[in-house]
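Protocol step 4 of 6: structure prediction from sequence.
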Amino acid sequence: MASRGRTLADLAGLLDATVTGDAGVMVDAVTHDSRRAGPETLYVALRGDRFDGHDFIPDVVSRGAAAVCVDHSVTKAVPELIVADTRQALGPISAEVYDNPSRRLAVVGVTGTNGKTTVTHLVESIASMAGLVTGLMGTIHTRYAGRSTPAALTTPEAPEFQALLADMVDAGVSLVAAEVSSHALELGRVRATRFAVAAFTNLSQDHLDFHGDMDAYLAAKRRLFTEYEVGTAVFNTDDPAGADVAAAYAGTSLTVGRDGDVTLSDVEPMGSGQSRVHLSTPWGDAEVIVPLVGLFNLSNLAVAVACSVAAGIDFDIVAGSLPHVAGVPGRFEVVSGDDPITVVVDYAHTPEAVARAVETAREMTSGRVIALLGAGGDRDRVKRPAMGTALSTADLAIVTSDNPRSEDPEAILSAVSSGLAPDRPHLIEVDRRRAIDAAIAAAGDGDVVLVLGRGHEPEQQIGGRRLPFDDRIVAADALRRHRRSVGLDTGSGSMTP
């Protein structure tokens, strides 16, 4: 069991802060959520766009919090830890109270616009097959020691992040693969974490509603390699931003790409979602068949190989595990069984990711590619026309709803469809279920239908409602109904005449 808990005096010494009241008070938990404050808990008051955590201190005191962390004195009811910036202090405080768990297990942190989920799942799968006890934190879920919980954030806030790492240490985990988002880096959610390995996958337009422009977005990603203790950095240098960050990096590093330390060549699609590849590395070469298709997925695989070896796993074990790595939910996931119409669900929700998904589908078929896409409401609006342009690379583009949230769905569709190439066939259908039905009805044997944007998500957010809607289930059901409507029956697990 990790030795958790620190006195306010301990934390004040760490942060060059001051204490009002009893500096000997011990805290063994940290929270920034006033509703979770309680005995032996330190509440850290954060200033946000809509709320100021300092305003909730009376409620925190009533809940029995042991102490509060503030940027100015607020109360005499409990001891105060006074710091210059509570947001920047939250990470170091959390790491210290939970006894710096990242120093007792190997944290593999992965950042980048696309590929974080795939790389972390591949690293987890490789490490598990190597006999390690593993953990995973990311967009889909957190899982370790037989437990799995859905994720609220790609990277949890600092108290939850450090508490999860500490619980993993207690559970015997030796390696955790964690997605590190640009929001997390900008807001300091992973501050005071040591990364045994830190990886950069790529950069393309996304999250400009938060970062403002691409320079600021890249600067946030770059923080992982300039402000943190990193054992080995891994860079995808086929990506221009990855090459730029790699060139400026002074520490131990590995590169992945055409001219990198780890390269993939002689790529041969094998059908059934498999590819044969030749892997060249500083530790040896291997020819393997992997359950992945598409150059973007194979690039993610190469990053995962470099991360796994950098984390201490023998290359021969890594190479031997690759044919058996587990698929990633909602990441170019084929949901059509062996039906002549191939239906794929993918999380692609940036212009570059959409274009890559269509390109990969073309590698799978000599038939048509039909692609369906929406854009999330209350998120980066600037990228929407470019998403429509990327969607136009399909033979039939269908624009529909994603998660409109508080926005008008029709307005979102208008923004996306404004980028469609006018000479390309397209359909606009606001109802996502009807749009999926239309996509499959338009497909013929040998065609590929791409259902893009939501991937693994189990709910659709419309207004203030969360409605059950899993693209994988909806698309598979639509294909079965289509087969019946044209006089074909469906067998168990496959589509047969």
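Step 5 (inspection) to follow. The chain is about 35% helix and 25% strand.
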